[in-house]
Amino acid sequence: MAISQTAAETIGLQAISWLVGNDELLPIFLGSTGASLDDIREGVADPAMQGAVLDFLLMDDAWLTGFADANGCAYEDVMQARMHLPGGEQVHWT
Asked: Which Pfam families match (predicted)?
């Protein structure tokens, strides 16, 4: 089932909140992206920041399942949410 834009942004916000509360994973995100806590704080409502966090979580199955399980969402909802946020569109090369 496809999710709405509002649901996608809600999952994006939940992902940011979960990441900021994860003492082990947050430093990895900050180090790999070059973002700071101020960048996250300023961009929390920005769908592009939400998409960046979802991209990060989607890089590792353990991160994805940890987030989804903690927030009661289906694993596939995370990918669907990512597709609704800026930069998540499927590219068609034809």
From this structure: DUF3572 (PF12096)
Q: What is the pTM of this model?
A: 0.89
- The whole domain housing 54 covers 5-84
Strand, helix or coil for residue 82: helix
Residue 92 lies in a domain: no
Task: Report if residue 70 sits inside a domain.
Answer: yes
Q: Residues 12, 85: contact at Cβ < 8 Å?
A: yes
- The full DSSP string for 4-25 is -HHHHHHHHHHHHHHHHT-TTT
How many domains, in total, are found in the chain?
1
Tokens of residue 83, six digits: 């597709």
Q: Which residues of the chain have pLDDT under 50?
A: none
